[in-house]
Structure formats: structure tokens, C-alpha cells
Amino acid sequence: MQRCARLDRAARDGRASTVPPERAGPVAGVDEHVGGRRLLEDEKILITGPAGRIAFPLARTLAASNEVWGVARFSAPGSREEVDALGVRTLPVDLAEGSFDGLPTDFTYLLHIAHAHGDDYDEALRNNAEATGLLLEHCRTAKAALVMSTLTVYRPHPDPWHPFREDDALGDQKAVPAATYSVSKIAQEAVARYCARSLDLPVVIARMGSAYGDRAGLPRIHLDAIAAGEPVKTRWDPIPYSPIHDDDIAAQVEPLLDAATVPATIVNWCGDEAVSVQEWSTHMGELLGVEPTIEVTPIECASHGSVGDTTKRRSLTGPCQVHWRDGFRRMVEHAYPERVR
After folding, report:
1. Contact status, residue 222 vs residue 212, Cβ threshold 8 Å
2. Nearest to 224, CA basis, from 322, 330, 331, 78
């Protein structure tokens, strides 16, 4: 019998129409209480990789009203202290080693956000797949666990605007500099699916798109290049993504955890609008009053786009609230306030 964290799974499945270049934006007709900002409160939450690009702003938001623990290697100087300052209880842990001395087992929720890149397949499988199994076993009494995967698990598609949906074929993209990433994340998903059934632990596997905000992310990398007068480097023209802002990521955590089930639920976790690198670079250039240069170097085997079908996610969380142009303006204003036009 299927176990669900708190949400009935009826009407979750469905297929979006192809996302066109003009993009529809936030979806109409969804109840405000679903699409609004819903945040966990009074929970004991474990977040992995809390100093990272996605987990840091999430930990910052959740620590305001929950007991949040964060585990990572904290190998970068000052990274642990930065997370400590958020009010997060930190503990240095090498997840791949599976030694969790000093880490409680009574977390109510697990947010497994940490991930590893690299060229060594054995190391990538240990860090992304084996570590996930060891961690889920440690947190087996939680009400639910969210395991963050990636849209790059999908087999590359020749149409750059193709919206990958959850039942599309998976495949190895072999895209440098993270050639091991997609295959090790597919392995991670398999381990998480096994653990959900073996441990009777409700799990949601959320395939992340292009996250962005004030801290970092692919759009921020491109912004810094534009501001410095350097070329924006990408692999195709056009190459669209589904950018999702930190605010929407935080708002969607609770409904995604509600959707955790046994067997695991799989859902794309990305923005509702498809935007190309070329388009967002032009927009950021206009905000800074400069003409961006885009350098295209094709990478064979890599996907021509990374657009996610969000039909299933919107049925769980409602639409994203941050329009990409508004979110990018906020990012530019935060990074270069004196230069924004």
C-alpha cells in the first residue's frame, strides 16, 4: 500500500502542452493558498550542503521558525561560520563515509540538497548515490525526505524548447566540466527510490532546474561576466532553461514534502517560464547599460535545452510567484546597485 506524507496523490499526473518560446508565465486559476508562500514551522529539519548555492538561502529562511541542522564537509574557509550565523546547528560530516557521530536521528524532515561534481565516476557515485542511501537510512524515522536531483538526468533532446516531463527518457549528457553528473544523479534517484520502499520512508525526488538568487547560480555567473565586460559562455544558440528564484524554492518546500510518498514521488522542480541564455543576458545587459557578448561553444552529447514541464509541480505547489524578469532585476540590483538603469 502506498504511503503518503500528507497529500492525496489524486490528480497529480498530467502532461503540459509544449512550452513555447513566448512562455505563459504564472498559471491562472490556482487557489491562492496553494500558490502563496507556505513555510514549515516548529519542525526539526536536516539540510545537507547548507553552505551551497541552493541550500544556503533555504536554510536562512527555514532557520527563522524551525530547528535546522546543517551537515557538509565545510571545506571552504569560513563556510561553516557563515552557516552558523544563520542560526543553523552545523556539524562537519562526509556523507559518503556514512559516519554520522553526533547527528541526531529524530529529524522530522530531511532536505538532501548536497551534490558533487567531478570527472571521477567512482567518486561521483559514492558522493551522490551511496551517500544518499546512508543518509536516508539515518533519517528513516522522518515524516518525509526531499532528495534534490536535476533536470540533466533526461536524455538530450534535439529541440531546445522541449519541456522534459517526469516520464521522459533518462540519459547521460556527458557535459563537461561535470561529465559524471547526470549518470551519478540517475543512480542517486534509484537509491532514493529503493530506500523509500525499503525503509517505508516517504520520499519526493525533485529534479532541480536553473536556480538563481542573490548568492549564485548560472544566471549570476552570466551577470558577473556581463558586468566585467567578459563574454557569456554557453554551448548552444538558443539554449533555454527554466529559472527558479530562491523565494519560490523556499515557498515550495512544504508542499513538495507533503507530496512525498512510498514509492517515491518524482517531480520537476523548476520555474514556469522557459528563458534562453541569450534572452536573459540581453535583459541583464539592458539593466546595466551594456551590450553583452555571448560566446557559443557547442558540446556534443549535451542537451540543447533544459526546460522542465511543470504541470505536475504546479498541481502540488501552485505557480511560481517570481516572474523571471522581476527576479533577475532583483539579482542585478543586489549585485550592482550603482549600475542599474
Report:
1. no
2. 331
Number of domains making up the chain: 1
What pTM value is reported for the model?
0.90
Identify the DSSP state of 154: B
Cα distance between residue 280 and residue 242, in whole Å: 11
* Separation in Å, CA 156 to CA 89, 150, 185, 334: 40, 13, 15, 34
How far is CA 150 from each of CA 49, 84, 188, 308, rounded to the nearest angstrom?
15, 27, 10, 10
DSSP assignment letter at 128: I
Q: How far is CA 119 from CA 39, 168, 192, 227, in A?
A: 37, 26, 23, 30
CATH code (residue 124)? 3.40.50.720
pLDDT at 205: 99
Q: Is the pLDDT of residue 268 over 60?
A: yes
Give the pLDDT confidence of 7-36 residue by residue, as tens digits. 333 332 333 333 443 334 433 333 333 334
pLDDT digits (tens, 9 = 90+) for 204-218: 999 999 999 998 899
Higher pLDDT, 117 or 272: 272
Q: Measure Cα distances from 202 to 1, 47, 106, 208 in Å.
A: 12, 17, 15, 19
Q: Determine the structural domain holding residue 60 and report its residue range.
A: 3-215+242-273+312-321
Quote the mean pLDDT of the chain.
90
Largest CA distance in the chain: 58
